[in-house]
Batch of 3 targets.
Target 1
Amino acid sequence: MSEKKYNRQTYTGLGAGMQDKLIKGAYLSARADAPDYSWMNAVSSGINAFGEEMETSKANKKAEREKVLSSIQGNMDKIMEVGGSLPEKYFDQAFDYANSLRDQYVAAVDSGDTKLQHKLKGQLNTFSTSIQTTKTSLSDAAGLWKDGSLIPESGMTPYQLSVNASINEENVELNEGSYRWRAVDPDGNPVLDKNGEQKYYTEEDYSKALPLRDDVNTEVYKKSNSTVIENREKWLNGEGGEFDNMSQRKANLKIIETSVKDMGSMQSMIHDDITGFGSFASSIDTHPSFVGYFEEDEDGKLSMFNMKDGISNVSAIALYDKDGDNSVGYEDFIDANSFPQYDVNEDGVISKEELEAVYDKDPSARQTIAKLAKEKIKNALLNPAKGQEDTTKGMLADFMTNRQKQMFYGGDERYKDLIPGVGNTTFTKATKKKKGKLIINGTEIESLEAYKILGGSYKYLQDRGYYWDPKDGGWLLNEGAQFYNSNPIVSKPKYDKK
């Protein structure tokens, strides 16, 4: 073991300068023959110097401490300023936490624990930023709700509704410098995690639970509607073709894909009234594409789930065929755990044969089961899971396209009823002496404009041989028209020989 060395400072516990002065005073006293107390002056001077040294040291330490604390107080003031604009429970928790960190910091300064000082200062800095972020997040979210920038509440998922119901003052907790919120359902009941413990939501959860309305791609769709209206006017005047369903649907699919890319989901396209005729979600029950899914064939299969464009719908069968019989029926949408009475053999899967047995005993059960299945299917279509969006995309594209088709044809394709020989429409052929008469529902159509006002297309009428004489007025018939018979269109209308 090495010899422990001591310096002069350890002799008395005094500083070297003070020690020298005391030793010098004692030396002077020993050398003098007569009593001489001048050494005491030296001692006194040394003590005074020591006292001044200590006071200076204390003052310097105090100044340094106050300087450091002044810096930390700046953060404190910032936190309190921001926290003061938050609801009371947010502020109270922020105040207590910040003061706790401050007290710990003061103790670390007093003890000289530099490492702890840096750690605590970092925590305060982080908290200062965190509380500002929280304030901004809450303020921005409130603005989105107030400005109507979110999709309708009815279109939000149960998870999104739960998060939005949870983010309030009553549920807030400050945990290690970050706010979190106790999870509750829309009715205020606690939401538990998989371990049966209280679940919490974070600011990140909140940001993901605010589904924005897709105004950009909605505007793209509305602009395409304007083009549809322009084409309608041309068609009404006999200058353009009919509605191009295939091209329009393809364009709408592109809009949907872009919306999914921009927004992360189809929620806006599904639940917002992008067409002006109601949303896809609000009209899905009566929409032809949806109704068609529940048309059963003679084998009890749901036709549109099993067939697409006349061939087996492999993707739909793979997605919905729960009982493994390579076809989709109502049985694939009935959960055996929820409806064990239909699972006769108790194998956890309801088969087509088991449902048929139920129908045999109680024919009214078919309607009940169909209703249950439709609700589940509707929910699945309106809230498709990741990787299962194709069916919904197709139906949504059909919906958007059908709305445009209605715009093009005046709402309900009434033009089809305005063709002579259909419904209550008749035509009296023209002769050399007089023009023909077009009569619809007992009313004579006296001009081309009157026909268009009813919703008819002059182009559609021309293709079928009926013309308005622009020179003299009146209606003429060309029996060589494209759709009148198999003959090619002739340049001039034919008259009766009468």
Target 2
Amino acid sequence: MAAFVETGTYLRFGPAPRGKKRPVLWPVLVHRVLYPDAKRPQLNLFQRAVLGLIRARTVRDETIAELTGLHQNLIKLILAQGVSNGWLVENAQALTATGDRLLDDEEIDEANLKAGYLLQDALTGQFWPRLVAQLNQLEPRDPLARYPEFLGERKTGETIRPFMIASGISDLPPLDHESLTLAYRDYREDYRANQQLGHGNQLPKQISLQGVQRLDDAPQSARALVWVTADDDGGDLWAVKDPFELRENAWWLQATLRRVIDSDANLLARLEPLVGIARADNQSVEQWLEALRKQTELQVLIEFPWVERQPDIKRHLAALLVRKEKLHQGDSHDQELDAALMECQKLLEVVMQWLIRTYPADVGQLPKQQRPDPKLNQRILSALQIPAFTEDVIRLLARQKIDQVIWACSKPESSLKALTFAAAMGTLNTPQHPLKVLGTRELQLSKLLELADLRNRSSHAQSSFTGREKTQLTSRMALDSIQYALSFTACFKEWM
């Protein structure tokens, strides 16, 4: 068992978020470990499909060709490559251990070990689903001060005065295989989710926690600087930003933060100004949140009664209404504007996901492409004869990679443009498909594509290094985007 003690060690990971936020020092135990250096997955889409079928005991090349739609000669080539690379056994009837790990994105090089750090939450004993390659220490301005202060931006001379959360339980569980497995599972899921959002090029190399070895007998106590903002998703009052920027929020800290707030009036007072809707006198956090939810739910019930039949769409629509209300109240910080655009995109994506699930496409009718072919994609989209698909819309959608569209047809987790292409494929042999009935004036798909591009152009990841001009968001742009997303969703109310 380990215990947290104050050591005067403070850690910082990643930059502070934009807009209104509050710093908090979170107590953690730092475990120094050795981990095997992970390789990038080496499988392309076709190889992954074939190896997956072989692991599922589908081994005849003609059967694999039939299930995947790939030519039998290509299947034979992939099988030969698999044997040659050591992914398949000699007769190509089963995966080797290396092939199994590679299919799970767990291929490792045991000869190359690196040192890293695992963080254990001193409030819950749970391990954070992240592995840190290096520690960045913060030096307080006065090391002897009870409540440390730190220099923020050197240019502005801003001072960071974080709130010190009480350390929590005295006996913390040790690092064991089960807790490591759970942390690694969550880490992999977050990593893949980030890749699906199109942020893969900005990510550090994925780390494998298989074969982790402890370096120290006992962990070291420290405090990690985290930032609390208003909840971007509208489901809660506050959110902890992911200090490692793998996801938008540190979801694993959310429930703990709520418990701490409920028991610490000082922290509540510190975080209260972040919420756009004021708290009534003597109103508890739960009552405050419930009042906010009721206000939003009432608005949904009055203005969008038909959405009750689609809980996923309702959830994102309600979150967008919260964003709209905060903008009307004058909260126009960069972070809030960016969050509004993100919520617009989320709502539009879930509507497209609903279309794909309700009117599934036959992906077998899509031709296989070895490389992107916008001209062919244009012909495919034009042949669908969808009224709202103007020449400009078709031209922009045709740039999507066909394998991403195929993926979106079966697992609608892709970008908004790929989802729109996949939804369009569902119109085949479905004359009453909503996209066949609704016209250009109702859907205004050019605005949908503009919104998707606007979110990318305004992203904080853009810089002078990209060669792209960043778009400065305004309240008017955000409100117009919200109105479009709501109107677009309402177009489908008769089918919902």
Target 3
Amino acid sequence: MKIIVLKFGGTSVGTLDRIVKISKIIISYIKKKYKVIVVTSAMSGVTNELIKKAGKISKNFPNSERDVLLSTGEQMASALIAGKLCDLGFNSRSWMSWQIPIITRGNYSSARIVKIGTDHLKKYLKKGGTPIITGFQGLNKESRLTTLERGGSDASAIMLAKFFKAKRCIIYTDVEGVYTTDPNLTKNAKKIKVLSYEEMLEAAYRKGASYSRRQEIKVSINAVFSWAVNRKYIALDTSPTTGAEVCAFPGETKGEKPKIIKTLDVMRDALARAQEVSHRWFPIWFVACHTGMRSGELNGLRKPDIHLIPQEEAEELDRKIEAGHEKPDCVSYGLIHIQRAWVKKSQSIGETKGHYSREVDVNRELYWFLVDYLPKAEWGSDDHGERVFERIEAWNRGGEAAVIKAFFLQNGWGNMTFHVMRAFWATQLLKAGVGVNVIMKMGGWKDYDTMMIYIRNAGIEVKGATSSLNLSLQGRAPKRYKGVSGDNVVLFRRN
């Protein structure tokens, strides 16, 4: 059978008029002699409304009953689509997950699909029927309904395509492409022309994404690869996902600990590459390397927190530095006041990790970057002022480590974390001779035990470090001594 899976999201089935439109889309594939499997989300807004009702009934609403409640949203949408297809003269019916069955494993509200029965649906497809399947749900070993994570209808469609060996899996949406944020909610949402490998990994490996979600993405990649092989677009016969652990990144050694970047060249190469590909995280990484700010502090940074000197004064300093009248490391172009941070648990702006504010110096390079960047940074505002950086959902959920990890591994720089940039900042300042107390104050460290980690990893050159010591009496240069070996001791005598 030539099977195709069509998935329609909540907004696509949000109104009766849209249901009529998607019914015509489904019919167009039927007329092309496809055996069509349709997966539907709940109508737009229905799931949120059901969640509100559960919260009003009880503040301790059982997760098992919550899943039963939420599954009714997809059930309503599937019945409406099937009813419309029947009205247009086509054989169609709704299928609940338990009728197929779609078997899941894991907790309520975050289950994952492990198996899908094919016998009943195959018989129905052979008879010319068009099944409309409820996405986002399945059946556990206790025969209870379970739901997947939000967006789980996509996972349902992908897994159905896998188990039925579908020719294609098409996910329909109400927007014309992938955007930086929801264009229905944000006016400044921009369409992404090219979705990079790094951004795909960001979505796949963000903290908070379940194993099932990552597994389903792996399945999707494998399906696309297999399709390309079958169409002879590529000659390889083995998918790049074959044998790959879902929890691991390409090139990562199991158990490998993140490294501290000890050289400027590596970080320069990394930032240059990020800038070259217009990586959406480049401005964040650039400022992180210049300030040593924590991820949450950068996420909570607002324009009123940045205090730069006037450009006329900065230009004058530049002239003095270039003329040799001032050293670059002896002048300041401004200060960044760090007084708040994004708190993942509460999903809001709160105190810094150390529970106190501090300031970090702005150097020449960072100054001119900010002068150019800040006027273009229009990411909205809140009670604390205008945002400096783009609101990235994965960042809010703690997924910043996954992004830099994927980027560094892909480019052959090893296993890194977001904290690497803070460590890099500290070690480079130590190598440059900046006092430990100054670094501790700017970085917000309270004790020397933590700083010792960076001191040990700074790659500081030892050779010649003691040349400034002069312990001779009366400031005179010491006379040369020659060692003579005894039986058990080394004796010294004057020449």
